[in-house]
Amino acid sequence: MSALPKPDAGAPTTAETVKNLMLAHDAFSRWLGVAVAAVGPGYACLTLAVRPEMLNGFGALHGGVTFAAADTAFGLACNSHGRQAVGLSVTIDYLAAGRPGDVLTVEAREESLTHKIGVYQVRISNQHGAALALFKGTAYRSDKEIPI
Predict the structure, then answer these.
(1) Do 146 and 88 form a contact (C-beta atoms < 8 A)?
(2) What is the pTM of this model?
(3) pLDDT tens for residues 12-53?
């Protein structure tokens, strides 16, 4: 009886392949400057350095930047299983202001997954671990497989 071959440890996971495909075509996230720290099934973690052009009229991080970073993490997490998913609804609660020079961590976690619906929580925090915003996203999962 022969042993089953082990998967190639160097082979990218579905989540990594989807991440590479999505970011290759996502000029906005590249412009934003997000760096992907980790991806996995139903999970994505990004970092983002707050630059002067990201500030609002009061010198705090513009809420649109925070939202956009959370939306990118949400998109990576909800597509990480290899089926094309799109956002149905999202909400965000802003808890504290980001500041110039902050390095944000944007972490998306899958809370529920069914055949057609996925629900995700995204936490945005600064380099001190202080929560700046909480984002919740609900995604519709199509039957269309992402070509990987």
Answers:
(1) no
(2) 0.91
(3) 899 999 999 999 999 999 999 999 999 999 999 999 999 999
